[in-house]
Amino acid sequence: MKVEPNFPDTVVVLVKHEGKHNWYVSEKELWIMDLLALDNAFRRKLNQPEVTETEADYEERVGCEILSEKNIGQFQEAMKEYKVNYTELVDYFNLYSEVYLDGVNSEVETSFYLDFDNKIFYSFFGEPGSYEDFVPTGWLGIYEKDAKKIIPENAKNNGRMSFFEKPDSNF
Fold first, then answer.
1. Alpha-carbon distance 130 to 79, whole Å?
2. Is the whole-model pTM more than 0.90?
3. 26: part of which helix (H) or strand (E)?
4. In Å, what is the CA distance from 83 to each residue of 24, 34, 143, 159, 168?
């Protein structure tokens, strides 16, 4: 894991694309889908004229200022070092719980779920930010308090072996 989940700065994100689920841990700003809409929202608040283009502040978002099904492949390639499997997340949250919470809560805390197959952005992010408001045209942005209602069970299989799989052997 390149970075550890450290809410609210770094977040856990689930991405579904072409039926496959991938988990990421990275800075939350990387997951604002429409940077142009965000830029213009600030401009409206400051009574400044809106713009038709914007530049990404993060290298991973260059060329993906409006993240959509058209450029998700490019973005996932740029984000590959932030990719984790679900088992890593479970292990991290279990350890965190044991060390800091006396074992009270060891669930994986997901902040966002981007479903590129159905064009839905789910935010479970409890801090101000309204990430669900900054989605591309044609997308639905939804805020939901309870990620367990939305995250599909099969997304949690990423990184786990099924009963019928054989582990890789290095000997």
1. 22
2. no
3. strand 20-27
4. 4, 21, 23, 11, 20
Token readout for 102 is: 């006396």
Residue-level pLDDT, tens digit, the chain, 171 residues: 888 888 778 999 999 999 999 999 999 999 999 999 999 999 999 999 999 999 999 999 999 999 999 999 999 999 999 999 999 999 988 887 788 777 677 678 999 999 999 999 999 997 777 999 999 999 999 999 999 999 999 999 864 433 333 333 333
Dist CA 137 CA 106 (whole Å): 36
Any idea where the domains of the chain sit in the sequence? 10-157
In angstroms, the CA 25 to CA 41 distance is 26
Tokens of 145: 């308090």
